[in-house]
Specification:
It comes from Streptomyces umbrinus. The protein has an eight-stranded mixed β-sheet, sandwiched between helices. A three-stranded antiparallel β-sheet has the order 1-3-2. It has 16 helices and 16 strands. It is α+β, with helices and mostly antiparallel strands. The termini are far apart. The chain folds into three domains: about 1-75, Alpha-Beta Plaits (2-Layer Sandwich), CATH 3.30.70; about 85-170 and about 220-410, Bira Bifunctional Protein, Domain 2 (BirA Bifunctional Protein, domain 2), CATH 3.30.930; about 175-215, no CATH class. A hairpin with a 5-residue loop joins strand 14 (about 330-335) and strand 15. The protein binds adenosine-5'-triphosphate and zinc ion. Zinc ion binds next to strand 16.
Length: about 425
Amino acid sequence: MYAYTIPLSQTVPLQLAGELSKRIFFVSEDIESFELVEQMDGEAKAVSAVRVATRVPLDAAKMQHMLDRLVSDEIVPQRSVMAQPIWRSGYPATIRDDTFDSMLEQGMATQSGEGQFGFGEPFIALTSHLDSLFQAAAQRSFGALEQQYPSLIPTEVLARSGYLASFPQFLVFAGRLHGELDSYKDFVEQVSGPTAAEDAGATVSRAVADHSTHLGYTLSPAVCYHVYEQRAGKCLDADLVSVTARGRCFRHESRYHRSLERLWEFTMREVVFIGSDDHVTDARSSFMREVFAIVEELGLAGHAETASDPFFCNARTAEKIWTQRLMQLKYELILPVAGGRSVAAVSFNAHGSALGEAFSIRTPDGEIAHTGCVAFGLERFAYAFVCQHGLHPSGWPVSVRNSVAASQSRRGE
Ligand code: ATP
Ligand code: ZN
């Protein structure tokens, strides 16, 4: 391991240290771990350097240049707006710190790659039960239309929505080999040649990089973009249209992936609202209250607060974060998990008319539609649940225990 302390040309106020930490692994994949170095800057402490560890020798000047650019373009211009708490559950947090290790030991979770997991019972039944609670609430309150969408989404749809330019760090593109006989032959030779056996991973990666092309599709980073695309150029037939869908989502979380808290591949249930400004605003607020009631029925500790998205590499990062926080465009339900940490398990988002404009969706009055979405991270939610209630159904609220037992007996377990 190599260690470097990279001084920052501009110090970062401590209240923005979290925003800096969220982005450092995306500055260079050579960084294996990092630590922020604090120093007094006038009256207050501030981050004055970043200590990084790498496996390969580093061009320290280049790293300083990149960190300086991140700090000056995207961190320091952020006006610090404190998260505003808007709700707190009445339940105290009792956390089992060994939850993740126990899940691995019991085979309830198995790791198949970075940030990728397979699951066993009763975690599968728990996740389905939680999902059915969210879906039923959306159907009861808004008659939400249930839909299923593919995991792939046209890259053009993500470009149109602004996702490509806002979150390039997360993108996982779908590729395939060049559609040409010579290229296939070359590829096959490369992956079956004598060096292939010695260094299989690297050889295959090189061969894929040399011979592949972008398909025009990306692995979906969220479910709701399918919903807007489905209605592109259309006029809604009601003042509020609500759609719900559960889908696999993919985000390259670099070295930020951790236990079941932050995955590269995960499952999201989304409830999407499209309609007039008032209808969408009201729907988000009333659904938020329903979700808080579900959290209390589940006996979970947690709270909700204003939040912002991890925009990256975008000239408007600071402005977008400020607008989101100030106009309360994003709320998150935060649940405590093991290790003294907490995770955002649900987000409640308002997009104004940005996506209605991007996809030319109109209300029955001919106005540009407003949109909002509520997104549940099912693995995160279920993980927070077992961190708080334990892995065995005997410790779970009766309604959850009964539902899980019923689903297991249906499957003859
Ligand atoms: P975070 O602030 O934790 O990165 P986010 O604001 O990017 O989350 P959203 O884009 O609002 O999250 O996604 C909706 C929900 O999907 C989150 O509340 C969370 O439950 C889940 N989610 C998002 N990213 C991940 C991930 N990498 N692994 C597991 N679940 C995730
Ligand atoms: Zn969404």
